[in-house]
């Protein structure tokens, strides 16, 4: 199963849940943990892996051959991100806005555009016991998180359980990280801010057609509105973690919850089993594995 752990709001304890799940499951089996919070990856603070492999991620940025260009403006017209402009017989490229989609070079009528790779970050692989960690890291100053997330997700294993730590919010990097999951666990806190951001996150996962459930962290600090919302929306609350200074203290020292308070291990294993029963069935067209199987099937058909 591919389980993504997300939260509309930052600071709700998403990484605490993702790492605790991975550590609890890794007692019996191999687990893959993908840190797709590439702007601020922090899973490894808790997992403490030995990084064995690291490689750069590039996106293709257009380069114009002025000798071939007739300044027709087609490239600027097709760019959905305003990353290229044609002004006074000059083609201006804004690399920070470029998504490396290739549309401008593909559609240039004069074949005046080539592409050159621009490094935007790295992907690292490491191991810690039964956990294989793959993390993306966006270079400071770079803006394009989705290509790094896609690169991290290329490593998804079809032989182990996969847990994805998603960045907070509901923007493009979140969609990129969540899509293809069999289930999305939404971590929230019982406050008006938590509820507001949870409802936005629910809209995203529903738009993607992914089943979801909620973990309420720091229960006891707010009101009962999150439970009320989940009840009305028919979203299961799968785990409640009380406000406990011991948990906060362990977290601040980089000690995972299940290591600091071992009785939580069993609860996380049970949580995962419950999620498995609610998740997209294996092979469903919604799941990344389903998509991959479908792709493999198609290529097999094409080659036969
Ligand atoms: S589409 Fe090609 S020829 Fe037209 S302005 Fe852009 S680079 Fe120049
Ligand atoms: S590669 Fe895509 S995003 Fe970048 S300038 Fe060309 S059309 Fe725009």
Summarize the structure.
With 304 residues, the protein is α/β, with parallel strands linked by helices. The chain has twelve helices and eleven strands. The protein folds into two domains: 2-29 and 160-294, 3-Layer(aba) Sandwich (Rossmann fold); 59-119, Alpha-Beta Plaits (2-Layer Sandwich), CATH 3.30.70.20.
Structure, described:
The protein is an alpha/beta fold and 304 residues long. It folds into 2 domains: 2-29 and 160-294, 3-Layer(aba) Sandwich (Rossmann fold), CATH 3.40.50.300; 59-119, Alpha-Beta Plaits. 37% of the residues lie in helices and 26% in strands. It has 12 helices and 11 strands. The protein has helices at residues 14-25, 43-47, 74-78, 103-107, 145-153, 172-178, 192-207, 225-233, 245-252, 257-260, 264-278, 288-303, and strands at 2-6, 31-35, 50-64, 84-86, 91-93, 113-128, 131-138, 161-165, 183-188, 212-219, 237-242. The protein has a 9-stranded mixed sheet with strand order 3-6-7-2-8-1-9-10-11, sandwiched between helices. The chain has a two-stranded antiparallel ribbon with strand order 4-5. A hairpin with a 4-residue loop joins strand 4 and strand 5. The longest helix has 16 residues, at 192-207.
Low-confidence stretches: 283-304
Relevant CATH superfamily of the largest domain: P-loop containing nucleotide triphosphate hydrolases
> Mean pLDDT, as a whole number?
90
Estimate the global geometry from the Cα principal axes: elongated
Through-space gap between termini: 30 Å
Count of structural domains: 2
Number of strands: 11
Gross CATH architecture of the largest domain: 3-Layer(aba) Sandwich
Biggest sheet statistics = 9 strands, mixed
Gyration radius, rounded: 22 Å
Helix content: 25-40%
Into which percentage range does the β-strand content fall?
25-35%
> Which ligands are bound?
iron/sulfur cluster
CATH fold naming of the largest domain: Rossmann fold
The neighbouring-strand order within the major sheet is 3-6-7-2-8-1-9-10-11
Count, helices: 12
CATH class of the largest domain: Alpha Beta
């Amino acid at each position: 199963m591919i389980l993504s752990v997300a939260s509309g709001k930052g600071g709700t304890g998403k990484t605490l849940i993702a790492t605790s799940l991975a550590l609890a499951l890794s007692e019996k089996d191999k687990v893959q943990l993908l840190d797709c919070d590439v702007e601020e990856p922090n899973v490894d603070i808790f997992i403490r892996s030995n990084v064995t492999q690291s490689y750069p991620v590039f996106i293709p940025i257009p380069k114009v051959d002025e000798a071939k260009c007739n300044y027709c403006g087609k490239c600027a017209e097709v760019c959905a991100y305003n990353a290229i402009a044609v002004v006074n017989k000059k083609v201006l490229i804004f690399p920070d806005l470029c998504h490396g989609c290739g549309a401008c070079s593909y559609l240039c009528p004069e074949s005046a555009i080539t592409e050159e790779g621009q490094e935007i970050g790295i992907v690292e692989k490491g191991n810690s016991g039964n956990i294989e960690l793959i993390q993306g890291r966006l270079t400071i100053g770079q803006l394009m998180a989705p290509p790094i997330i896609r690169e991290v997700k290329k490593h998804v294993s079809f032989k182990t359980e996969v847990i994805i730590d998603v960045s907070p919010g509901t923007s493009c990097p979140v969609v990129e990280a969540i899509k293809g999951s069999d289930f999305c666990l939404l971590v929230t806190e019982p406050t008006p801010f938590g509820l507001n951001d949870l409802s936005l996150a629910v809209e995203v996962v529903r738009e993607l057609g992914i089943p979801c459930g909620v973990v309420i962290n720091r229960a006891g600090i707010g009101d009962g509105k999150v439970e009320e919302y989940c009840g009305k929306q028919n979203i299961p609350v799968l785990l409640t973690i009380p406000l406990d200074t011991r948990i906060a203290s362990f977290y601040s020292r980089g000690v995972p919850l299940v290591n600091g308070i071992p009785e939580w291990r069993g609860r996380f294993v049970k949580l995962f089993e419950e999620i498995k029963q609610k998740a997209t069935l294996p092979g469903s067209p919604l799941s990344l594995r389903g998509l991959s199987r479908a792709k493999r099937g198609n290529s097999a058909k094409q080659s036969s």
